[in-house]
Amino acid sequence: MRKRSNELWFSSGVSVLIRLMFLSTFVLPSTRANMFATEIEKTNLQEIVVEEEGDLFRFHSGSLERAALTTPNTAEVVATSPGAAVIENGPITGDFQYRGLDSQRVQVLIDGMEITPVGPNRMDAPFQIAPPELLQQVEVTRGIAPLSTAGGAFGGSAEARFRTSHYTDAASLVFDSGGSFLFAGVRTNRAAERTGFLLSFGSHITRLHFRGSFENGEDRKSSRGVVLPSGYKRKTLGIGFARKRPEGEWGADYYMLRTDDFGNASLPMDAHLVESHIGRLFASGIVAGFVVDGNLYFTAQRHVMDNFRLRPDPGAASRRNSDHQARNIGWSIQGTRSAGNGILSVGADGHFYRQLQIITNPSNQAFQITNFNHTENNRYGMFIEWSGSVKNGFNLGLGARLHYVQMNADPVSPPPTAAARTLAARFNSANRRKDEKTLDLFTSINKEIADGLEGEIQWARKSRSPSFFERFSWLPLEVSGGLADGHNYIGNIDLKPETINEIDVGLDWHSKRFRLTPRAFYRRVNGYIQGTPTGDATVLMVSTMNGDANPLQFNNTGAEFYGADAAWTLGLGDHWHAKGTLSFVRGLRTDIADNVYRVAPFHGNTELAYEQKQGAFALEWVFSGKQDRVSKTNGETPTSGWGVINLRGEYRPTRNLKISLAVNNVFDHYYASHLNGFNRVSSSSVPPGNRIPEDGRHISVTTQYRF
User: What does the alpha-carbon distance between residue 419 and residue 456 come to, in Å, rounded to a whole number?
Assistant: First the structure.
């Protein structure tokens, strides 16, 4: 029955893709007068979006060209945003934390698509498919994300958008030299090599592009030795086209990611293979006076891990191979139009996820565990938002979103031990079908207080249903959503959704040469899902056999977060400028006297830069305070503060060619970020149980040529 269900699900997804493709052809209005009126409306809406991108509501994190110069990990770009921090469990495995919340609690979008990691430890985190050199922008929504964001974005939202093709004035398809580029770079640490390209073709009604990147890196070197294993190989390929119509456009994209043998010393296994195929259809047009945008995508993912290829072989009896497979269908449709003195947006979206994980021993054909058996996580949502001006110069925003989440899982098969069979029998006999309905609300008030000074207050109530591993992990293994802390975790079928109530206050103080955008916030999360000690004798027995005598179970607890963050820029003349960010968050458990687990300490960055037409130079200081407000319940250890100096420069010998040089960690400082995982590999220079350190001093050189 399950196989039949999956076939129907797949075929229905293909059917919907085809229908969306034809939507733009048949539903758009055709009258010339109507087209002219709605095109003016559409242009005005686009201008509003462009203006928002520069104000206090959004922050474009860092420079992508800087990121492409120094790192293959796009999550490090996001970490330069106020309120954000990076979680790195591998060379290209990057997640981000926003104001104390991370992983499944924050939304990561790639070209508007929600890419759910197939690995329960997020070794294939969404940013993995988006190397910095191929991106047009990475944007973090400051404050509370709007409810129109896919899924409502429980704790924060970041979106990466690929560079793409553009329309030209040509009557037929021609090579677009202005939009095409080649990229190449080398890096001393890891002996890394990277190349990337975008080939763009366009006419006045059609555009077409091909893009790709190819990367190789050896093991990371800290200032005290080599971190094993931490090498990687990654390639991405993409193709896309779009066709313009008088009232909009329609098009399709295909994305492919493949990574081979990349090490994750903080996790029990390394990735032998990660492969993702993503297809997307999109359309826009005018329907009943609304500017309508539709997006539909399908993903097929496979993630194979093992504990013997890249790290010391544990012996035939302990070898493990984990094969994960997943399928996703996601869709969204949103209509926007003028309403009163503002803009009205209505829409709906959905995300349907299926996953299978089988663990084997390649030296013992009789050993097989079906750990997640066709787990389902289906989410439907609809929203309405309005923002506009009201009396006395105030701007008001209002929004509401309804969620319906349905989760289920098939029976599992255990390893051949009596205790594990007991846990499997419990799980298989339980009612695993869960249906949850929630309501999210949002409001904001904004006003210009004085010339050059704006203020805003936001409030929201949002909800999040448990992830598949929080609910359906029945066997105590190191399945923690990327915490990489050495603990075994077990799920809880009866978990309730988390509910967050958040208030955010922000200012935007700006003049011709100066800008400061501080924001303060308070978050209270009812039902906060956290690993807590378990007294279940069977779980303790199995977990001890699996290497952890102190396993944790995901349970509903309570938590609150408060803090502040800020971004600033200062012009120092025609060629000099300075800028930076500051971030502080405090996390407390509200059910017991303890701190929230794994919260980033106070941190920030400051940059002094000189720019002119043919080149630029920048000096950067990146710093972090100590973190001694740690979770006693989870055995979290404190970390010391640190600071590093980075240098960057670029030279443009011609209009089309740019050569860049960077020296990171100039003084070869040894340090580890608080959110880093803990080493599991005995052959590494890092003692087992210690946090994985950051890179030692390294030099990067890149060239970029635009045709």
Answer: 56
Interatomic CA distance for residues 124 and 117, integer angstroms:
6
Kindly provide the b/e burial profile for residues 348-367, where b requires at least 16 CB atoms within 10 angstroms of the residue's own CB. ebbbbbbbbbbbbbeeeeeb
According to DSSP, residue 568 is labeled E
In the DSSP assignment, the letter for residue 467 is P
- pLDDT tens-digit series, residues 423-482: 999 999 999 999 999 999 999 999 999 999 999 999 999 999 999 999 999 999 998 888
Phi-psi region of 426 (alpha: psi -120 to 50; beta: other; left: phi over 0): alpha
For the whole model, what pTM was predicted?
Answer: 0.89
Q: Are 204 and 171 in contact (CB under 8 A)?
A: yes
Dihedral (CA of 622, 626, 631, 634) sign: positive
Place of tokens 């009866």: 494
Q: Which residues are within 8 A (CB) of 192 and not within 5 positions of it... i.e. 6 or more apart? A: 72, 185, 186, 215, 216, 217, 218
Tell me the three state secondary structure of residue 671. Answer: coil
Q: Using an 8 Å Cβ cutoff, are 479 and 473 in contact?
A: yes
Amino acid at 644: V
Distance spanning both ends of the chain, measured CA to CA? 55
Q: Answer whether 164's CB lies under 8 Å from 240's CB.
A: yes
Instruction: Point out which residues pair with 435 in neighbouring strands.
Output: 406
Strands of 93-98's sheet in order across: 84-90, 93-98, 101-102
In the chain, DSSP finds a helix count (H) and a strand count (E) of 7, 34
